[in-house]
Amino acid sequence: MKNQIPVYLFVGFLEGGKTHMIQESMEDERFNSGEKTMLICCEEGIDEYDPSRFWGKNVYIENIENEEDVTLENLNNIAKKHLIDRIIIEYNGMWQLETLFMNMPENWDVYQCVMAADCATFELYNANMRSLMFDKLSACEMVVLNRATIDADRENIHKIVRGVNPRADIVYDYPDGHIEYDDIEDELPFDVDAPIIEIDDKDYAIWYRDMGEDLEKYNGKTVKFKGLVARDPQMGAKTIIVGRHVMTCCADDITFGGLICNFKKDATLNTGDWVLLTAKIKIENHPMYQRRGPVLYAESTAFAVKPNPELATFY
């Protein structure tokens, strides 16, 4: 097996501060202590690198101008030019990360992915280029909001990031040089310890994801929510699938977040019905999940008006 080469990936949009962050990192001997580093630049911004200020003379800069040039062959050829210990990539914000990940040589290993963003335009980019924002946010371990101001809407920024990536650190970098970490607690919008966990229409996607990430937390709990019914004849008359269509990012990634629900008697519900369901959750194996998953046991049902909006989202 080839020796793995660590990759430090910086993502974000033009003027978000990627170049500045990399420049500062390479000037810091704690990060740059002599490792032979290949810096791959995938976009040209206002800031330019000043290698004369890098700690040591150990950095080789390569440029990739077009997304179609992010190929396995090209990346391998670039790497072969130099004897390197690590790679830093400043990735173009308008390019999909899948292009890089699908073509990355096997011995390249992403150690850290940081998203740099201008605090003043972060929400605007999210509103106008949601799919590209989702692409970058979903991959990063840290979001750095550069040029932060005291009047930044931290609550909304937190909501945007957490709607895509529940684990990423959020850091505000102020013009005077000091930084502040986001310290907003991620409280669930429903009470997991209530006798009946009531899921508001707007919170279905959050509940569905949280249950998928921590199954045992919900084992034995009773839940009440509104869902869309789907029937599968192969499951028999006493079993339905109930859930919501969930959109994580954009229309292209809409999926049906459905759950198995068993009844004591034949279920009279039909595909397309909206139902207000109260059910007990048991975490157990089921063929539909092909693993352990949440199986609902209906306690009561009532026909319901479909939610508005009908689509469940995280934001």
How do the helices and strands line up, and which of them pair or pack?
Blueprint: E1 5-12, H1 18-27, E2 37-41, E3 59-63, H2 72-80, E4 86-90, H3 97-103, E5 108-118, H4 122-128, H5 130-137, E6 142-146, H6 154-164, E7 169-173, E8 179-181, E9 197-198, H7 204-213, H8 215-218, E10 222-230, E11 239-247, E12 255-262, E13 274-286, E14 291-303, E15 312-313
Parallel strand pairs: 1-4, 1-5, 2-3, 2-4, 5-6, 6-7, 9-10, 11-15, 12-14
Antiparallel strand pairs: 7-8, 10-11, 10-13, 11-12, 13-14
Helix pairs in contact: 4-5
Task: Describe this structure as you would to a colleague.
The structure is a single chain. With 315 residues, the protein is of the alpha/beta class. It folds into 2 domains: 177 residues, Rossmann fold (3-Layer(aba) Sandwich), CATH 3.40.50.300; 117 residues, Nucleic acid-binding proteins (OB fold (Dihydrolipoamide Acetyltransferase, E2P), Beta Barrel), CATH 2.40.50. The chain has 8 helices and 15 strands. An 8-stranded mixed β-sheet has the order 3-2-4-1-5-6-7-8. Strands 10-11-12-14-13 form a 5-stranded mixed β-barrel. Strand 7 and strand 8 form a beta hairpin. Helix 4 packs across helix 5. It is elongated, with a radius of gyration of 24 Å. The mean pLDDT is 93.
